[in-house]
Design brief:
Layout lengths: L1 E6 L8 H4 L1 E8 L2 E8 L2 E7 L4 H13 L5 E10 L9 E9 L20 E2 L3 H22 L2 H6 L7 E8 L7 H10 L3 E5 L2 H11 L3 E9 L5 H11 L1 H17 L3
Bound molecules: adenine.
Length: 254
C-alpha cells in the first residue's frame, strides 16, 4: 500500500511531514509532495490548495506520478444539516458536486457522460477512517484539545457522522443556501470544496479513497469567522491524530 494524503490547507496537515521518517520533497505542478514513512505506512503528503480543479489535479498526480494505491483526504467542512455541529466529524459515505448543473441536458448534479451524481468512497477505507475518528474522540480528544478551546467552540461530546458530502467551488456562507442544498440532497452532512472531485478522479482511475471532514462552521452568515478561528486553533489536532490512528491501523493490516 502507498497512501496519498491530501489536505487543502497547511493547517489541516500540520505536523504530518514532521512526523514522517525519511521525508523527500518533490515539487510538481506548483505543489510540494512529501514522500516518506508515516507510522509504518508508505505515504505521500500534499496540499492541494482550494477547489475542485486543484483537488482533481493533485489526486491525479498522486496516482499517475507517485503511484499511490489509496487516497485519504482530511480537512474541515461546513455543516450540511442541523444535526451536525461544529467539532463533529464527518466521514463521507458518498460525494456529490453540488454546483454541477448541466440541466436540461443532464439531470442536476449528474457529472455529464458518467451517468452519476454521487461517487462512492471505498467502504473498507472509510470504515477504518470512522474507527480512527471514534478512537480520536474517545481517547485523544480531552488530552489534545484544551479546556479553553473546548469552551470557545462549545465542543461538547463531538460525534462522528457518516453521510453525503457535497463539494463545490463556493465557500457556503448563507443559511438559505445550505438549507436549499440540504433539501435537494437527502442525507447531506457537510459542504466543502474538494472531496467530490477527489472521489471522481479515484472512481475513474480505480483507486480507493476516503474523505474526512471536521466541522468548522455552520455554512451560514457566521461561517467565515468561525472557519478561520477553527482552522487556526483546533483543526490540526483533529487531522493529525485521526491520520495517526488510521495509519497505525493500516500498518497492522494483514
Ligand atoms: N469548508 C469549511 N467550511 C466551508 C463552507 N462553509 N463552505 C465550503 N467549504 C467549507
Amino acid at each position: 500500500m502507498r497512501l496519498g494524503i491530501i489536505s487543502a490547507l497547511a493547517e489541516e496537515q500540520q505536523g504530518l511531514v514532521e512526523a514522517m521518517r525519511g521525508p523527500a520533497k518533490l515539487i510538481h505542478g506548483m505543489r510540494e509532495y512529501w514522500a516518506g514513512t508515516l507510522w509504518e505506512i508508505d505515504a505521500v503528503c500534499v496540499l492541494s490548495r482550494i477547489g475542485k480543479v486543484a483537488a482533481a489535479m493533485t489526486a491525479t498526480t498522486l496516482v499517475e506520478k507517485f503511484g499511490v494505491t489509496h487516497i485519504l483526504f482530511t480537512g474541515v467542512g461546513g455543516a450540511g444539516d442541523k444535526t451536525v455541529r461544529v467539532g463533529d466529524i464527518v466521514v463521507a459515505e458518498a460525494l456529490v458536486q453540488h454546483d454541477m448543473d448541466a440541466s436540461p441536458l443532464f439531470p442536476r448534479f449528474e457529472v455529464p457522460l458518467t451517468g452519476q451524481t454521487h461517487f462512492q468512497p471505498d467502504q473498507q477505507l472509510s470504515l477504518r477512517l470512522s474507527r480512527a475518528a471514534h478512537d480520536f474522540l474517545e481517547r485523544d480528544f480531552l488530552e489534545t484539545i484544551q479546556d479553553g478551546e473546548r469552551q470557545a467552540f462549545r465542543l461538547d461530546q463531538p460525534r462522528v457522522h457518516r453521510g453525503l458530502v457535497a463539494s463545490g467551488d463556493q465557500f457556503v456562507n448563507d443559511g438559505a443556501h445550505v438549507n436549499s442544498l440540504n433539501d435537494a440532497l437527502p442525507g447531506l452532512v457537510a459542504v466543502e470544496m474538494e472531496g467530490a472531485a477527489v472521489a471522481q478522479v479515484c472512481y475513474e482511475l480505480g483507486v480507493p479513497c476516503a474523505v474526512l471532514r471536521t466541522i468548522s462552521d455552520n455554512a451560514n452568515e457566521h461561517a467565515a469567522i468561525d472557519f478561520m478561528r477553527f482552522v487556526k486553533s483546533v483543526a490540526a489536532q483533529y487531522a493529525f491524530h485521526i491520520t495517526r490512528r488510521m495509519c497505525r491501523d493500516l500498518a497492522d493490516m494483514p
